[in-house]
Design goal:
By secondary structure, this protein is α+β, with helices and mostly antiparallel strands. It is 62% helix and 14% strand.
């Protein structure tokens, strides 16, 4: 009951913890196993107060020294209530409280180790699933997600679209201004697209699949619906300037390819190869262009 307050943050756990001592003590009075006692009432009020404090502050209490104070008071309060029902000496109450604290401490340290393992796993999962430089999902995650999307959407009539964009003339940033500037450009573009996709509530997923190449998967949207979203974000990118150095600001443009998942696609690779082909159509059109299902247009 005590540890559930810390690890299961639900009102049902709170109500159960508060209601059980009232039920047990009230039942004992009804059955004439004990009589009303002011000390038992005070113990019950202390117990309820501790339960409430733990419930409201469990996240920081569990990793602080106050955890042991709540543990001790919880045990003392409970055994004091039970002392009024079952004959026990003060030394027995203290001994039972000590046993309770010992068991809860063992459980606590076990939980600390488990939580540490979970945190390490989640960090490893994040490190493995996300691009270290830009912070967006990486190629490995793209392969997994695109395969999952293909399995689901190829078997129903719901649309799914994929957009792929490439930073125009990216090599010049590295060659003329250095790789540090190139890295800043990648992070800048990735962050802008990621933020805008989130702000527009698209539920789309952004991936870095190559050096300066990114893909976006749009679930439940056609290419005709996805293309305006990507173009609108691209327009924001072009309207802004990127500071290469104190006396030099430049505009960044991208080339874009967009396509739907087709009934004829045999695998996620077919889906990806087609959007990649459309991207290169846009790049071959003097860059700063968009190809939607092979229909290429220059972007101003």
């Amino acid at each position: 009951m005590f540890y559930c307050l810390y690890i299961v943050h639900r009102k049902t756990v709170l109500l159960f913890n508060m209601g059980l001592p009232i039920y047990i003590y009230g039942l004992a009075i009804i059955r004439h196993q004990t009589q009303f006692n002011i000390l038992n009432l005070l113990a019950m009020l202390l117990l309820i107060a501790i339960i409430w404090v733990v419930y409201r502050n469990s996240e920081w209490l569990i990793d602080s020294a106050w955890y042991y104070a709540t543990q001790f008071l919880f045990g003392v309060a409970w055994w004091s209530i039970l002392k009024g029902i079952r004959t026990m000496t003060v030394s027995q109450v203290l001994l039972l409280t000590f046993e309770f604290m010992l068991m809860m401490t063992i459980v606590h340290f076990g939980n600390i180790e488990i939580r540490a393992m979970i945190k390490r796993y989640m960090k490893l999962e994040k490190d493995n699933g996300y691009d270290f430089l830009t912070g967006v999902r990486n190629r490995r995650t793209f392969n997994e997600v695109s395969n999952e999307v293909f399995e689901v959407y190829s078997n129903n009539d719901l649309p799914v679209a994929m957009a792929m964009f490439d930073i125009d003339n990216f090599k010049l940033f590295n060659d003329q201004y250095g790789h540090q500037v190139g890295d800043r450009v990648l992070k800048y573009v990735a962050q802008l697209f990621s933020d805008e996709l989130f702000e527009r509530k698209t539920n789309a997923q952004l991936f870095r699949v190559g050096g300066e190449e990114f893909t976006i998967i749009f679930r439940n949207r056609t290419s005709a619906e996805a293309a305006p979203i990507v173009k609108a974000i691209r327009d924001i990118l072009v309207e802004k300037t990127f500071k290469v150095k104190d006396d030099l600001d430049v505009r960044i443009t991208v080339s874009i390819g967009v396509t739907d998942l087709k009934k004829s696609d045999q695998s996620a690779k077919d889906f990806y190869k087609r959007v990649d082909k459309y991207l290169y159509q846009a790049k071959n059109n003097f860059r700063n262009s968009m190809s939607v299902e092979g229909d290429v247009s220059s972007l101003s």
